[in-house]
Structure formats: structure tokens, C-alpha cells
Write a structure and sequence with these properties.
By secondary structure, this protein is an alpha+beta fold. It has a single domain, classed as START domain (Alpha-D-Glucose-1,6-Bisphosphate, Chain A, domain 4, 2-Layer Sandwich), CATH 3.30.530.20. The protein contains five helices and seven strands, in the order ααββααβββββα. Strands 1, 2, 3, 4, 5, 6 and 7 form a seven-stranded antiparallel sheet that branches. The protein is globular, with a radius of gyration of 20 Å.
């Protein structure tokens, strides 16, 4: 028994190394650009410069068979205390169902508005960039205890600061190309690659693909 254990350890380590290598070389590159074209991944994306010393996050995209004027109303009513996030509601909307219709009372947003990320409003996405029917940039700035801070003032020593962007471009046939990307900074900086690869990238892919699916369904079925 004692002679077999080292062999099993070696096999387990080899399997783990193989799985990790496969994920990093084959699967991860696909997650980081799911549905996106080369130009969408490599080209400029709105919001650059909003967060100092930040890195570009994953770029994902989808084609919606509806014009931007029918997609935009679903985006501007996002928020836990509003229309939800159209993703896995049990995970990101605290079990509350996301909206299935356009709510006129949630259509007016402005720079600086807070879209609640928690039911009690203790965390939020701030409207950091706004160009109607073209771009919506949401920003969340937290210290590593999960407490919001004002990025216009002195930053805490350890923090995460991110932009979640939605860029809409009208394409042929009255369709919309929706590209989601953004920018992210984490301090301490050495922790950023680990957190990104192990936690944020896989979870973002799961939630964003679900949101794309729901937004596509809702916008395509809504009246013109």
C-alpha cells in the first residue's frame, strides 16, 4: 500500500496538470472571447481611461434580431431593485425574477445613478458612461471587505474597481450587435491574475451567456 501511494500522487498531479494546461490553452481563450469577432476583441472599447492602470476584461458578443432601440430599454432598467440582471436570478439577483416586460418608470437613468447590486442597496453599479442606444458603462468600486468607495477620492490600499460595459451597434437587417467588455483593476496587483483566471473569468462566462440568451429572447419578442 505504501508503495502505491507515491504513484497515485504522481498520477493525480499529472492529471491535474493536464486539466489545467488544457483549460489555459484550449478552453480559456474561448471563454474570453465567446461570440466575439477579432475586431471586437482587439479593437478599442469605450470606457478606456475611466479606471487608472486597469486591464481589459473578457469580450463577449451576441447578435440580436432587433434594432438597438428595442434592446436599450432592457439594459437601462437593470438593477436588483429594478428589472434585475436577466441572468441566473438565484445567483445574481437574490432569487428575485428579472423583468419580462419594459417598465416605463425605470427608463430614465443619468450619469452618477446607482443601480443596486444588493436588495439593501449596500453595493451598487454606478452609471459611469452613457450614450443612449450606443453604450452603457457601469462601474463598481469596492474595498476588499466589500465596502463601496468613491473612486474620485483617495483609494483604499486594497480594492477592486471595474467597468461592465454594453456596446450596441446596429447591423444589417435592423439587428443589434451587443458586445460586453470592460476594464478592471485589483490591488494588490499581484493577486489580479489569480483571481481573474480561477474565479472571475469562468463565473463571468456563466452569467454573461445566460444574460445574452435572455436579452436576445426578450428584445426579439418585444413589440417595435
Amino acid at each position: 500500500m505504501t508503495h502505491r501511494t507515491p504513484g497515485r500522487v504522481v498520477l493525480a498531479a499529472g492529471a491535474a496538470a493536464g486539466i489545467t494546461a488544457g483549460y489555459l490553452t484550449a478552453l480559456r481563450p474561448r471563454l474570453l472571447r465567446a461570440g466575439a469577432t477579432d475586431s471586437e476583441v482587439q479593437g478599442p472599447y469605450p470606457g478606456a481611461g475611466l479606471i487608472p492602470d486597469s486591464t481589459r476584461s473578457a469580450t463577449m458578443a451576441v447578435t440580436i434580431n432587433a434594432p438597438p432601440s428595442r434592446v436599450w430599454p432592457w439594459l437601462v432598467q437593470m438593477g436588483t431593485d429594478r428589472g434585475g440582471w436577466y441572468s441566473w436570478d438565484r445567483l445574481d439577483n437574490f432569487g428575485r425574477r428579472s423583468a419580462e416586460k419594459i417598465h416605463p418608470e425605470w427608463q430614465e437613468i443619468a450619469l452618477g445613478d446607482h443601480l443596486a447590486a444588493k436588495p439593501d442597496g449596500s453595493q451598487w453599479w454606478e452609471v459611469a458612461a452613457l450614450e443612449p442606444e450606443r453604450f452603457l458603462g457601469l462601474r463598481m468600486s469596492l474595498d476588499l471587505r466589500g465596502r463601496p468607495f468613491d473612486p474620485r477620492r483617495e483609494r483604499p490600499r486594497y480594492y477592486t474597481d471595474s467597468i461592465w460595459g454594453f456596446e450596441l451597434k446596429e447591423s444589417a437587417g435592423g439587428r443589434t450587435r451587443l458586445a460586453v467588455s470592460g476594464y478592471w483593476a485589483l490591488r494588490p496587483k499581484w493577486l489580479q491574475p489569480f483571481i481573474s483566471v480561477v474565479l472571475l473569468e469562468p463565473s463571468h462566462w456563466v452569467m454573461q451567456t445566460r444574460q445574452f440568451s435572455n436579452l436576445k429572447r426578450l428584445a426579439e419578442s418585444s413589440t417595435a
